[in-house]
Description:
By secondary structure, the chain is an alpha+beta fold. Helix content is 64%, strand content 7%.
Amino acid sequence: MRQPGNIAGRMRNAYPTRIEDEYQQELAARPSRAGRLVMARVMAAIETAIAEYKAKAQEERAAGLREDAEVPYDPNRALVLVQRALTGAQVGYTSTVGQINIDAVLQRARAVDALATRVQVELAESVPGIRTTSDPTVGYVLQQAWARENVGLIKTVDADLFDDLATHITAAVTKGQSTSALAELIQARTGVAERHAAFIARDQIAKLNGKVVQQRQQGLGVKRYRWRTVGDERVRDTHRAHDGKIFEWGKPPPGTGHPGQDFNCRCFAEPIFDDEMLDDSPDDTPEMRAAQQEAERRVAERAAARARRQAEEVARVAREAAATSERRAAFMRELEREAQRAQTEALRRAQDEQRALAEKLQAEVNAALNAKPGTVRLSNGATLAESPDGKTLTLTLPDGQKRLVSLEPA
Length: 410
Ligand SMILES: [Zn+2]
């Protein structure tokens, strides 16, 4: 067995941290987008319910049917509007910002596999005499299966969030809770889904990384590995017990499986380059030394290329971040405009209804004045009576209150 130097350190640095961070952000951004859509639509629905209820209460007060409105809205009416808002938000989300880009998910799997392949081949190359062929198409089935599974998980997180929001919002509206309480509720439930999505992203990248490392090591002829933990206090006891021990790829350790397969496992497999993987030619031949020099030269070349790629990648990420924050700001402005529009519309409808009611009553009063003398009953239950001398008009409200109106010119 001949192990290259600092193999554990090199593998620890080769974990796909950046891919995991990006995937985590991508998945956590989904509930956050859905939550903002639900927030805008539900708030507009509640504003409508409040405006309708205010107009109705005013109408009833004018008719003397009630003293004042103590609740912000009618829960039954609000529930109808909120259900419609939730359905609208879910349909809107699924067909626009919530669409799942399967190619982008598959791209993550390819990136994880590419990194694992490069690192494992480089490790093998740094051992003189080790066979270093690697078939890049080997990972295809694994990548496809992972992408399919992840699309399913993303859909489930989305559906669960909409179900969860519907349950909680329905209960809150039934109790007649305020708009601020509802807004807080939507934010809190969205936050739970964001954390869940981030957890899934971390767990999925770790599992995929564990599997592609296994596939690439086995592809290079590695039969055994040494279990390595990341060595911090979060490592589980069962995994710490494996640390430094040698396992066979053909026989997963019971209970834990291979590194990375347990929930949130950050352990990794250090390949063991057994003597059977070496060429038969003896050490220290000129060919062997040349092979070693060639291996070292290739490792150095790859390191330089990697540094270049990383610099390019940093520039690309910075450019993308600028574009993304611009798109996000535009999206938020659009949501605000939508909420504003719904609110304005609700207020305008309530005002129109009040104006129509006032006009109707005015018409009835005019009719009563023109058809003197006598008593006229208005549609809201009040009566208008003209005095026999034609000088005053008595308005009797349904609760018995009276008001005198002089008909003489002032
Ligand atoms: Zn572990």
